Every structure is written in C-alpha cells, then in structure tokens.
Amino acid sequence: MLPHLRGNRFAHQVADPSTQNPFAKPVSQPTNGYDNMSPYNTGTQPGYSQQQEYNANTQPQFSQPTKTFAKEASNPFAEQSKPNMYPTQTTNPNAGYTGGYQQTPQQQYPTPTPQQTTQQTSKKGKNNKVDPDKIPRPEIDMQSSYAPKRFVTAEGQAPPASNLNFITIDNGVAGPRFVRASHYSLPPESSILNTMGAPFGIILQPLAEPTQDEEQVAIIDYSAQGPFRCSRCKAYINPHFQWSDGGRIAICNICKMQNKVPSDYYTGIDEFGVRRDKLERHELCKGVYEFLAPADYHNRKPVYPSIVICIDVSVASVTHGIFNQVLSSLESLLDYIPSPELTSIAIFTFDQTITYFQIPEDLTKELKVVAVSDIDDYCVPFPPQTLFSNLAEQKDRLIYLIQKLQKYYESIFQSQQPKTFSTGTCFGAAVSNCGQMLKTQGGRALIFTTSGPTIGMGKLKRRDDYKLYGTDKEKTLYVPQVDEYEQYAKTFLDTRVAIDLFVFSPEYFDFATIGVVSNLTGGNIYYYPHYNANFDGEKLHYDIARNLTRFCGYDAVMNVRASTGISFAEYITPIGRRPQPILELSALDSDYSINVLLKIDEKLTDETVHIQTAILYTNPYGQRVIRVINLALKVSTDLMTNFKGLDVEAVGLLLLRKNLFTISNQMIKQVRESLINQLVNILYSYRFNCANQSSAAQLILPEALKVIPCYYLAALKAHIFRTTSDVKPDERSYDLHRFTRLPVNVMSTVLYPKLYAIHPIYQVDELGPGKTTEEGRVVLMNNLATTQDKIDDDGIYLIDTAETIYVYVKKDANPTLLENLFGYDNIENIAAEIIGLPMLETDYNVRVNNIIEQLRRNKNSSYQNVRVVVEGDPFEPYLLHNYLVEDDSKYGESLPDFLINIHKLIQQKYN
Known about the structure:
Layout: H1 114-117, H2 142-146, E1 149-152, E2 166-169, E3 179-181, E4 185-186, H3 190-196, E5 201-204, E6 219-220, E7 242-244, E8 249-251, E9 258-260, H4 282-285, E10 288-292, E11 306-312, H5 315-319, H6 322-333, E12 344-350, E13 354-358, E14 368-372, E15 389-390, H7 395-415, H8 427-437, E16 443-449, H9 484-494, E17 497-503, H10 511-514, H11 516-519, E18 525-527, H12 533-549, E19 552-562, E20 566-573, E21 576-578, E22 583-589, E23 594-600, E24 608-618, E25 624-635, H13 639-644, H14 648-660, H15 668-690, H16 708-716, H17 729-741, H18 744-751, E26 754-757, E27 796-800, E28 804-809, H19 815-822, H20 827-833, H21 843-859, E29 865-870, H22 876-883, H23 895-910
Parallel strand pairs: 1-2, 4-25, 6-10, 11-12, 11-16, 16-17, 17-18, 28-29
Antiparallel strand pairs: 3-5, 5-23, 7-8, 8-9, 10-25, 12-13, 12-15, 13-14, 19-22, 19-24, 20-21, 20-23, 24-25, 26-27, 27-28
C-alpha cells in the first residue's frame, strides 16, 4: 500500500501494475524548462548546560483492552467500490512514469546492536562554546520504526512526538493524530497561564487517517432520533458523561447539566457508576467516533463529490509538459477515486479564452469544441450538467475526453509556432466559471495555471517591486490589492464550492490576493515556481493523486465546546484569525489541520477539564455525519507539572501560527523580534519559577520544550520570516498558507528536515536498516543533526524535507556503493543520467528504496518524490542552505549561536 492511503477507509487492494500502466502515452518533456529562471545558480561566548530533565522519557508498554462494539453503519456502496490505489511512478523521465510499489521479502528484526545505532561524531568548530552533540533536537528513534510503542490515551496524558512511529489505542480520549493540545496539565487560573507564556489551544486534524495498526473511526446510527446530547450546552454523549439514579440521569461533563436519559437509551449502571453497556458502544468508550446525522440536521441538499478540472493551455503549460502530465495523471487515477457512483467530473481549458468540450453520445464521433472569448462575464455555452460525466457509469466518456484533449492540443501546437501562443491568461474568468458550474450542487475545482490573471475578470496588476523588500511598505504586498477574489470566495462558500490551486508561475502570481479562494473555502494551494518535468513531474502526479483519492468531506461546519471556566478564543486559519466559534468550510480533507486558541475565563475547580469538537459534514458516500472528538486535560496547581505537561509541537506551532498574519501590518524584522521575545518569555518563566536555584550561567530548558529552539530557528529561516532580499512575496504568502494548515507531523519535518546517513548501512546482516519485519515495517536508522558538520566527504545521505526526499551524494563516495545504489560507479555519470533513485536488484538499492518508502508512509500524507543531487550540482547550494537549518547561513545564525543569544536575552530579563 502506498503511504498516502494507509488507514483510508476507502482503501482496497492495489491494482497489478503489470496489467495496468497509467502512463502508456509518454508524458511531454520540456523543451527548455524554467532553468533560465532558476534561483539555484548562486554561490554560496557563554556556555550552557542541561538539567537532568533531558533524560529521554520511557513509555510504558500497554496491552490493548478487549472490547466489543455495536454494529457500525454500513457503506451503501461497499459492494460496488473500486480499488482505491494506483501504481507508483519511477523517476526516470525517459521511461515515462511506469512501475509499481515493491517490497523486499519480510524478515524479523530484533533489537539492534550498538554499532548499528551509533551516530557520527560532530566536527566541532574551534570557537564553539556549546557542544553541538549535547543540544536536544527532534529525533527519529530507530527502535520505534520496527517496534512502535503503544500509546494508550488517557486524561492529561501527553502524546509522543508526531514524527515517531507509535500505535494509538483510543481509550476514551482522542489520540494525537486527531488532536494535540498545547497543555496537558493546565493551571487553574488565567494569571498562571499567562505567566507560563505558552499559548493555550489545540491543533485538530479532524479527518485524519489512522494507520493500518489502529482502529478506524466508527459510524454510529441512531436513526431518526439522533444521538443523545446535553439539553443545555448540546454536547454529544461521550465517555466522560457520568451516570446517577441507576443510570436514569446523565451528567454532562462539559456543563454539569443533569439530563434525563431517554428510555430507548437507558441501561443500568454497576456499583462503580459505570454503564453496563459501556464497552459495547463506541460513544461511551472511544474518544473519536461519528454519528449518522438525523433528518433534521439536513437543512440543505447534501453535497456529492462533483469535481471540475480546469487546465491552463498557454504556451508555458503545453511546452513544459504540465498540460499533458495533468491529463495523464487524471486518466491513471480514475479507478482509484472514492465513491465513483456519486462522483462526476467535468474538464475545460483556458488561456486567453475559455474552451468547453461536449462529449458526443456516440464515442466514435468527434468532440464538439466551443471557445468562449467573453471573459468579462460568466458564459458556459452548454447546460453545466451536460459537461459532467459520472465516474462509475461514464468512465469511458472521461477517457475519451482526456485522450481527445491531448490530441487536440498536440495538433494545434504542432501547427503553430510557440511564439503565436498566448502568454497571458484569463485566470479570473476561469475561477468564476468553475464556481458557476458547481453552483447548484457544490463540490471541488482543481485549477492548474502557469500565470495569474492578465486579462478579463479579476485582472491584477503586478506589484512585486523589489525596492519595497525590507521596507515598511513591503507589508502592503500581503494585503489583497482588490476584493474581487474575496467576493468569489464568499460566494463559493455559500454554494459549498472549494477551490484547489496548482500554480506553476515563475513570475509574480499574487497569492495574497488570489489565495483567498482556496483559503476561505478549505481548498489547497500547490506551488511549483520553477517546474521542470524531469524533477517535478512525479511530484505533480502524486499531489494530484493525493488530492483526488484521500478522504474528503464536504459542506463542513465545526463547533468547539469546553468545560466551565474554559472558552473559545479564536481559530487560526489560512484566511486569518477568526473569533467566531462556528467554522464553515466547503471541503475538509484528511490532511487539513485546524488551530483553535482557548482561554481560561474563570477559575478551574475540577481535576479534569474537557474539550469536545463536533464537525457536521457530508462524507464521500453522500452521508451526512457528525464527527465527535473528545479531549480531557488535567488541572494542577504545581507550575512544574504544568510545564512538564506541555506539548512542544502544539506550543511551537500555535505560537508560530499566531504570528504569521502580522506580516501584513508589521515589518518582517519586527515579526521576528516578536517571535523571539515570546520564546524568551516562556523559557524565562520556566527558569525563574521552576529552576531559580540553578547557576545563572546555565541555559535551562524544560524537558517538554527541549527541542523548541530547533523549531524556532528553523522557522526564522523559512521564506516567510527571512529578512534577505531574495525572498519573493509569493513565497511568503505560500508559506503562510501551508504553515497554517499542514498536519503537525508534516510540519515537524517541514521546519526541521531529517538527515540520514545511508552509506554506513551498505554492509549489514539481516539486522540492518532497510530490512522488513514480519509485520511489514521497514527498519530505519537514527537521524543526524541537520548540519554540514555531520556530512562526510565520502558520504551518501537522505534529506527528508516533507515535500521531497533528496539523495545527496558526496564526490568521494565509495564507487562500490555508487554502483550498487545507482548502477554507475562515479558521480559524473550519476549527475548526467540519474534524476530519481532507480530500482535495482542489489540488496543495497532495495534497502534504500525500502527506507524511502517507509519515510513516505510515516507521514500519512502526500507521496514524496525523490531527487538525486550530487556534489557540484548547481542545485546543491540551495539544498544545503535551505534544509541544513542548524548551520550559519545568510538566512540566520547557527543553532549553537542561537542558543547562546537566547540565553543572553533570558539573562537580561533577570537584570
């Protein structure tokens, strides 16, 4: 199974790649790429100690409780479901994107020997007063890769780090794949919370996909009467309700209301006050579950998965292979889109006009083509419903259309010189028409464009004046220049239409203005500013694949309820900070994370507080359902306990996301200073209140936040917060979008890329990394610090950035390793012939490919492409400067220097 579908309730058996090649027609290759526009051809105190808190936590081993459950609601289309997988691609552009996912024979992997877990020794600088090897940093634990620990959820139980391999046992509290809290131990008063400095909130991934080892989310059907709810606060029944009067009274855990239990829901309780059917009902023993919504929840027509594909056919799109790759990928994915019985797809194209295609009833006849030049108003020459084809019943029509489109534009392109093609597009009109086509039924539009709107509706002016960079006027570039796209977005939200943008523009696009159509509706933005089919064709394919095949809900409405004393403060979304407690989205996919800030508005008197999130949405089966996510946090008056209960990833991301939108009203330098001050305040609070007896010469970090300096330094070096003049406004705006909505486990690697040495694993026995256990898990190695100090002149490394996995080859690498890994024994041939890692029959190559596959699976999100970079490649400086975040570079200081400066700022607060 490919990683992006692991845990998906719609996943089935993978199709046999030998009998189904989705890329039989070669994908177009670029004539010149965007290489001429590439930014990659560029050149290039006091000490600190750690308290004993740095000792690694040990997790207890738990056994999974045996429970029986009520019958789940059935999938009405299960008997007609199509396989929800598709063959993978190779990264060899000359062979087309063919091939299949492979695994080595499974073997048992016991505890590793000490030699196998030893990391390289750091090459310390002469002037470093901080030992880099003693700095805490995000780590991938080798043992967890083949022997994942079980995390049993419980009240106030802080979860493992998101980048570790673990198995969640839902024991009545939602697991960390669905929700993470900044505080698992809350102080009872807001004044103490403010003293700590860490933001109080949760990060939700409501439709997250459990792994193959975890239980799927159950759907519970209570027919017409619907689920049992508190009559006052409307909280849904959950494992933390209490029972009295023999089970006739239910006490709400949110507002303490005593509710009379309906006769058809009544069951007696035991001597401990526990309902006797607790283990038979998901809503009484699980933290995450779904109810089928009763009829009175359906206040409007349900949204089915209607999808519009809108493709740019300008000279850049056709020349660089974008148009052909999109169609080829779409054709290969038709068998793997969930719920084909309810899914309908329409396709149209645009450049300086918009072109529609009517499929004939008789597929032996020609396609009817109508080009619309009226791009200042909505105009579709056919009834919109006639442009959609049902995926289950009319798949042959879609294949016909895709193949005809490829031939149609191929013939046009061959009959004209490229210079006669239009260079601008009517992108704004295309966006408007997508919304109009979906107006009556709702759904999603995937729009692929190589430029912003230059003519027609929504035309924008170019305003990325480099003279504004670094000045007070730069912040105006992150404010929309017109309100037209915001009006589009509001209309789309009302009609339940989500917009996904795939942007290939190497020039200015203006995400700050256009991005609102995705940000407000729950859509995605994918950005390929220097698209080259050799490097990015595979990535584009898998981005489209993930988008079309992952679990996605429609017409979503979310609400948050919390115990007395805790209240909702605001959402942090890609559109900004929103104080309304009800959040609406046209679409909500399994990779979407939602940030919720909370506040303590009166003293907490209970030992445990509860937070419940409910999301009403339509699933891909057309069912209107309510997903309920329950979280329970402990309350403690001990400040040390409060600090120990912090979750570093939730704290770091909430702090980061709170500050993202200040770039529109402050200079980047001011935003950076504010971020650093907030970090210093947290660490100072811990130092002053919990470690005041330690020497002032020591930098003391709380155990729970020991890696937060790594994340902070990396965030300050990201495009959105850089102060260098080589950062474009679109890069900052794109970071704002993805940093706000990416899942926690993906953001962990986006901020702090993972570096792995793969040359030491060449000669290993059956215990080595890359081997597969009987359970199907691939053994990984420990990651290294992301610094050039850890890179040897003869090494070969993997650099995992969450979007791409790079294979970085140094010039003195062993020729035997090169031959076994790439099929060539020198880096000159590798640089000339290899783009992605090939699949060879050598043991070393198989094991490295296995490791890459496992890294992809662990993210449970978009499938990453692989790119090989050898020493001396023009791309090498970009790779090292952007992803080795611990090094001193033009984007910021080294990690040791950053820690020293943070320490100085903490000391200044003492004086």
